[in-house]
Amino acid sequence: MMKKLFFTACMSFAFLAGSAQTNSYIVKTKGATKSAQNHMADVIAEAKEEDEESSKDFISQNFRYHSLCDWEEGMKFMVMPEKLDLVVKTFTDAATGKNVSNLKLKYKIMIYKGHSEGKDGRAQINFMCQDDGKYYYYVIDHETFEDYCYQRTGVPTLAYLGDVDIAREKLMDKVVYTKSKLYRMDTEYDGEGYQEVLVDQDMVVKVVAVGVGTRNYPVKIVVEDNAGNQFYQNVTMSRTNCGTRDDEFEGDEARFLFNNSFELQDDIMSISSRNYKVFIGKVVHTKIPVKMLNEVTNKQQAIPRLAEYKIESITPHKGDDMATVKLKNTTLGTFFFADCYLDQYKAEAHPEKFFGLIFAPGAGKKVVTTEATRAMIRGGHVGIGMSEDEVQMAAGEPDKVETGQGGQYFWIFKRSNDKLLYVEFDGSGMVKKTSVKDMNEGGGKKKKKKPQPVKGWMGGKADPLAD
Fold first, then answer.
1. What's the pTM?
2. Looking at the DSSP assignment, which residues form a beta bridge with residue 349?
3. Helical ranges in 191-341 per DSSP H
4. DSSP state at residue 446
5. Residue 421: helix, strand or coil by DSSP?
6. 212, 214, 222: which is closest to 174 by C-alpha?
7. Which one, of 68, 79, 223, lies nearest residue 148 by Cα?
8. pLDDT (tens place) for every residue of the chain, 467 residues total
9. Nearest by Cα to 145 from 115, 121, 168
10. 102 SS3 class
11. Which ranges of 91-235 would DSSP assign to H, the alpha helix?
């Protein structure tokens, strides 16, 4: 959109003006077992600035796609054959002219040495193996090198190590957030065995290892959560030698794009006074439970994780480094206000108020509700017949959960004035009853009654023998 605007503005302006065990690239998770001109100029400048800012994400800044046509000598790749590659032979030994098994070359590092024409007239792509010092080549059948390289293709089995090296430099020990729910965990130390694992979205994890994955998804990123659990995702970065098109990253395959699996804490919604306007109109969701000012009630309301909003405006404060962000709940249509820091580095004293910690880009959890129920939720009220999702929209996430009999259970919310809101759910997950109790009563402690005066005894004073 911005590129079209920039192009249109430019045209208008012109018109108006005239081995797995020893190889450091092989990494595993824990637990794997062995086996007007001025006006128009302003429009152009603003459009260009917005376009540049919006395109400066982690991938575009650090990972450049290298077409086979512009490969440079010295580029490193690793032979990572898949099952089908084990029954064919990709490389030829330059010294003997014999084809070599991919299994024999597995995990070997190949250094690109340019291309040439063989004795039989066929084009070949040349490599030197870093591990054994021998030279190998890949034969291009029925095409010239130029014809072959201009296609989005490459050399089978090779995973580009340039992406792995950059990812190591940029990601090791970094805190990131999970953006997918499906990841993997190694089951074999000396093989590619793995099992799929489900994790929470927007969970805080730390990158503990970066290694090689597969040809299509060459960067294996291993992360660890706060409980010490490790899991990984193989992702594509620059797509050098990947051979995949944009339309192939759909459905389950979409998670193998880096931005669909991980989000850098340092890169999340990084807003400055110069580019904050770019984020107006964007859809975001809450990463953590938070309190925001409800425009309807004019009170702070507890908001659960994964609540979806559209950014209406961002107003930087005068005199401090914070800003007021106005957000519209996409389900309720209600406006909320959050005071937060836009710049992570200015939020060092109060990191919990950093915009990028509270919000993440993209859609949140979709909640099905009725207009009658939405009216109650807008006012922060919980009513009989509400679902768990609707209760969370109205009151946030519970402070405590208790189980009852017959499938019943209770969500308990701390309210102001030492009050507790008890929400009783039936076995089907619908609100059956609500009640408000004193905090002491809710915690199982009886509130001690004050002595009451007894009429006709010592001038109205309490009877000393009453106890």
1. 0.56
2. none
3. 258-261
4. P
5. strand
6. 222
7. 68
8. 444 444 444 544 444 344 555 678 888 888 777 664 444 444 444 444 444 444 346 888 889 999 898 899 999 999 999 888 877 899 999 999 999 999 999 999 999 999 999 888 899 999 999 999 999 999 998 888 988 888 777 899 999 999 999 999 999 999 888 989 999 999 988 888 999 999 988 888 999 999 999 999 999 999 999 899 999 999 999 999 987 777 777 777 889 999 889 988 655 555 554 567 778 898 999 988 999 999 999 999 999 989 999 999 998 888 788 899 999 999 999 999 999 988 777 888 888 888 888 988 888 888 889 888 998 999 889 999 999 999 999 999 999 999 888 788 999 998 877 889 999 999 888 999 999 988 776 444 444 444 444 333 333 333 333 33
9. 115
10. helix
11. 102-105, 145-149, 161-171
Structure tokens at 198: 């489900």
Give the DSSP per-residue string, 50-94. HHHHHH--HHHHH-----GGG--TT-EEEE---GGGGGS--EEET
Q: Classify 450 as helix, strand or coil.
A: coil
Angle among Cα 214, 217, 221 to the nearest 5 degrees reads: 95
Burial 310-343 (b: 16+ CB within 10 A, else e): ebebbeeeeeeebbebbbbbbbbebbbbbebbbb
The answer to whether the CB of 364 falls within 8 A of the CB of 202 is no
CA distance linking residue 122 with residue 137, whole number of Å: 11
Torsion angle of C-alpha atoms 284, 289, 294, 297, degrees rounded to 10? 150
Question: What separation in angstroms does the CA of 457 have from each of 6, 129, 452, 461, 463?
Answer: 91, 105, 12, 7, 7
User: What 3-state DSSP class applies to 344?
Assistant: helix
Helix 37-55 and helix 2-17: axis angle, to 10°? Answer: 160
The amino acid present at 265, given as its one-letter code, is: Q
Cβ neighbour number for residue 277 with a 10 Å cutoff: 15
What is the identity of the amino acid at 369?
T
Q: Nearest to residue 27, comparing CAs of 129, 203, 171?
A: 171
Cβ proximity of 307 and 393 under 8 Å: yes
Q: Please give the Cα distance from 450 to 457 (Å, whole number).
A: 17
Residue 218, token pair as written in the block: 């060459």
Q: Coil, strand, or helix at residue 437? A: strand
Alpha helices (runs of H) in 85-144, residue ranges in sequence order: 102-105
